[in-house]
Write a structure and sequence with these properties.
about 270 residues; alpha/beta; 10 helices; about 25% strand; globular
Length: about 270
């Protein structure tokens, strides 16, 4: 049992820059002992394409089409590939590197944190399991995040059910990820760039076979509140967390506003590569 009291920030929908700024502000506050370990659930308004820290926006994303569709766009501080955040529950779990929930290697902490996600799926009556560590694969990967499970990510019948990414900075671990209620591959591929239509179609078919959403796994529809409840309980049970519902401190809010202005709503950051 972890003795630390965790702060739970319940689900709210935010603009893309604010979502990413909040995750970073919480990470910084924790690094300065200004905030407890935090579990946060959130959504995106408008629907948003986020890209990984190392991706090249101009090369991999059709920015014109993105604007036409009215979607948000943001670069994450974590690695990984493009994710369309629309019909999903996003989580972030942020704690000092020394904390039992996240200590050890990236793979070890993924494995541990995935226990909370696993329990969340089980709470919805979906039989998920952890993907075993991957053998090195030389296959071509697309720009889309859900095309292959990483070590210890959640799979249902061999298909990836939740995509997560992790970063470690200032002695703190931040892991955030998407729990898909629905997966609209057509919409995602509308805004990704490929050198030929053949490659686009091949990647699309691969993704259809490799990724799966909650509503594809279950015969009953779920509201976002039901999914949030299932995964809140899942994290509490699976990771043995002692949580207290909380909110951001004025310090974190102020820092998040600065990060929106100087970083996440800023073209220099979002298009920098």
């Amino acid at each position: 049992m972890n003795n630390t009291k965790w702060r739970l920030i319940p689900y709210q929908s935010h603009a893309p820059a604010w979502n990413m700024a909040l995750d970073e502000a919480i990470l910084t506050a924790i690094s300065e002992n200004q905030a407890p370990p935090t579990l946060r659930f959130y959504g995106w308004n408008p629907a948003t394409l986020s890209i990984g820290y190392f991706q090249r926006a101009e090369k991999e994303v059709n920015l014109e089409r993105l604007k036409e569709l009215g979607w948000g766009f943001v670069r994450r501080m974590t690695g990984g590939r493009a994710v369309l955040h629309d019909s999903e529950l996003t989580y972030s779990i942020i704690a000092p590197e020394t904390h039992p929930s996240v200590q050890g290697s990236v793979s070890e902490s993924y494995r541990y944190l995935s226990q909370g996600l696993l329990r969340g799926y089980q709470n919805l009556g979906i039989e998920a399991e952890l993907a075993p560590p991957a053998k090195s694969s030389k296959g071509i990967q697309s720009a889309a995040c859900f095309d292959a499970p990483s070590d210890y990510e959640l799979v249902v019948h061999g298909r990836k059910a939740a995509g997560s990414a992790q970063v470690r900075q200032k002695g703190v671990v931040l892991q955030h990820g998407s729990i898909l209620l629905d997966l609209d591959i057509e919409r995602l591929f509308e805004v990704l760039m490929f050198s030929t239509e053949e490659i686009r179609n091949a990647r699309k078919q691969e993704l259809e076979q490799k990724a799966v959403s909650i509503h594809q796994c279950s015969s009953q529809p779920f509201y976002i509140q039901e999914v949030e409840h299932a995964f809140t309980q899942g994290m509490i049970e699976g990771l043995e967390l002692d949580v207290e519902v909380g909110k951001l401190s004025p310090y974190e809010e102020e820092m998040a506003h600065q990060l929106v202005q100087n970083k996440y709503a800023n073209d220099d950051w979002n298009y920098k590569r």
